[in-house]
Amino acid sequence: MKPIIQLLILKTQETQQGRLMIFYIKWGSTILVLVGILLTNLNIYPLNIFIHGAGAVGWTIAGYLTSDRALLTNFGLQIPLFMTGYLNILI
Q1: pLDDT, the chain, mean
Q2: CB within 8 A of 90, min separation 6: which ones?
Q3: Burial zone of 35 (CB within 10 Å; 0-12 exposed, 13-18 middle, 19+ buried)
């Protein structure tokens, strides 16, 4: 299974369509993160957690596809933090 994922990552980075997909994932995620921060500053809760969390997931995917460890560390570790927020809303 792992060689298939590595091949997918390689193909994504090598083709123009793959680079364009990563471009859109990054910019879409950036917009979501910034809107999440704005909603936090406006104290619009819990929507801020869901929007910012979606942006963090997008950046984690982009980091995975580009094999960027800094992105994976930063945004990948944010996901469990957002999960605590989701659980807090449900309880």
Answers
A1: 88
A2: none
A3: middle
